[in-house]
Design a protein that fits this description.
Largest sheet: 7 strands, mixed
Number of strands: 11
Low-confidence stretches: none
Strand content: over 45%
Helix content: under 10%
């Protein structure tokens, strides 16, 4: 059973930065599409950023483009989400994911709160 273990959430003021980490197996990192989703209270979960395992291609939602960066460190078996210039509307539970067309694994979620 594959597992994703997230860390790095917390509270920060507007304009601040946080880095989320997601530990995964080498198999997932190399073969799956790794992603970060977020879900705000009362709203649906939606994709923030993704990284294709075997090509390194990245995608960002328009709301975070230019502020967030998804990256991977194979030696640490970790995917990161670097978040800069955070805004109150970035407040949500952030989930790491590993996906193929017929299967998806989720992390447990980590809370990010942006407030003054």
């Amino acid at each position: 059973q594959e597992q994703l273990v997230e860390s790095g959430g917390g509270s920060v003021q507007p304009g601040g930065s946080l880095r989320l980490s997601c530990q995964a197996s080498e198999h997932l990192l190399s073969n799956f599409v790794m992603g970060w989703f977020r879900q705000a209270p009362g709203k649906e979960r939606h994709l923030v950023a993704r990284l294709v395992g075997n090509t390194g291609e990245t995608f960002y939602s328009e709301s975070v483009k230019g502020r967030f960066t998804i990256s991977r460190d194979n030696t640490k078996k970790t995917v990161y989400l670097e978040m800069n210039n955070l805004k109150p509307e970035d407040t949500a539970v952030y989930y790491c994911s590993a996906a193929l067309p017929d299967v998806i694994y989720w992390g447990q979620g980590t809370q990010v709160t942006v407030s003054s």
